[in-house]
Design goal:
Helix 3 links the parallel strand 2 and strand 3. About 45% of the residues lie in helices and about 20% in strands. It has one domain. It starts with a helix and ends with a helix. It is globular, with a radius of gyration of 17 Å. It is α/β, with parallel strands linked by helices. The protein has 8 helices and 5 strands, in the order H-E-H-E-H-E-E-H-H-H-E-H-H. The protein has a 5-stranded mixed sheet with strand order 1-5-2-3-4, with helices on both faces.
Length: about 200
């Protein structure tokens, strides 16, 4: 219970601190990331976007199923954003660090490479990825853009954290059927695939 209270206090204080600079914070579970992007980022968005993704990981990274979801989500986002929109990726919980410094949303190869192996892409590890994300977002604040931190929670890792000391032991990851990520991706992208076929 104590880590949860500490987490909430840090999050609330960080949110209050960043409100001065109008950094919006949103939270979504990894399973809902694709529908979240589909609903919140349309192809006709005229506003410049500066998005920092804060992704929850275990100390070994994330499962292959979670990588599939993240890759599909970022591919969709890349199609919907412009060359001028930027994306950053910071990890928290098991791995705490900047995995991807600001890149154009169109640089999908670099983004996918980062997702494939967070650990090797983090140059410097920190004690607290949450605090790091808000400091990073403020340092890279763009007054001409909509500045957003999107916290991507991973319920499987959260369940495992209650069984292990987060910094001392490797977090095991809950197994789930491999088809779930593929089915979720296919269902979510179906309307977009149909519209592409029509065009």
């Amino acid at each position: 219970m104590k880590p949860v209270i500490t987490f909430l206090c840090l999050l609330l204080s960080a949110i209050g601190f960043t409100q001065e600079k109008n950094i919006e914070t949103q939270s979504v579970s990894i399973e809902n990331l694709i529908p979240f992007i589909a609903e919140n980022y349309s192809k006709n968005t005229n506003s410049l976007q500066n998005i920092t993704f804060l992704i929850q990981t275990g100390s070994a990274g994330i499962s292959n199923d979670d990588k599939v979801i993240l890759k599909q989500a970022f591919k969709l986002l890349s199609k919907r954003l412009t060359e001028d929109d930027v994306i950053s990726i910071i990890t928290y919980a098991g791995l705490n660090g900047v995995a991807l410094k600001q890149k154009s949303a169109k640089e999908i190869k670099a983004i996918l490479h980062t997702i494939n192996d967070f650990k090797s892409n983090i140059k410097e590890f920190h004690n607290d990825g949450l605090e790091l994300a808000y400091v990073y977002a403020e340092e890279n604040f763009n007054e001409e853009a909509i500045n957003t931190i999107i916290m991507v929670r991973n319920p499987n890792i959260m369940a495992n954290q209650s069984q292990y000391n987060s910094s001392a032991q490797t977090l095991s990851e809950t197994k789930k059927p491999k088809n779930n990520a593929v089915i979720l991706t296919a269902i979510t992208l179906l309307p977009e695939i149909i519209s592409i076929i029509k065009d």
